[in-house]
Amino acid sequence: MRNLPLFSASLALLLTLTCSAQQKIAVVDLEKLIRLHPNTAEDKKQLEATLQDYNKQKEQLQAVAASTRKAYEAAVREAANPALSEAAKQKAEAAALEKRQAALEADRNAAEKFRELQRDFNAKEFRMLRRTSDEIESAVAAYAKGEGIDIVLQLPSRLSAGSGVIYSKPGMDITKAIMQRLEIPDEEPEVEDAKKSGPPPVATDESGSEAKARE
Asked: Cα dihedral angle (205, 207, 212, 214), rounded to 10 degrees?
């Protein structure tokens, strides 16, 4: 009984080796296929155009928020004018309070819109990547069926370091065949100016904006 764990492990290893000998296995570089796929370059252009549009909206919202803060600050200064009568002072303080609420509301609206734009951008980027991935996966599956391949494993990459493939013979790599099947050119796309593809819009710190309004 003491040798049962060792026997079970040996049996599992034997079954694995037997199955591997009976199965035809290939590997594919999914990262390369996605990087060189024609969809990727076109999707990048669309995302950059979307980003520019979102940045314009962000600037407009920031301008509105800044304007309401300035109006609030001016109202505070007016309420602090020592030359005002008591009635005028109360009226100015009420006006300042309204301006404060307007400033806080503008900041909240801006922050919420920033988050909405961020979510929309991420969703659009995901849909584009999913479309390309589905095309590649369909091509890989069709090729594997046609060639009698039982298992296709993903090669390690910067995006998926934990693929489980440490070594494979060159003949097992079907990446080139999939590229030909999808008519993907075997060349790296030109690297555009990094300034043209900045990060997606990020919401500003709402608490920081409100702190200014409370002063």
From this structure: 160
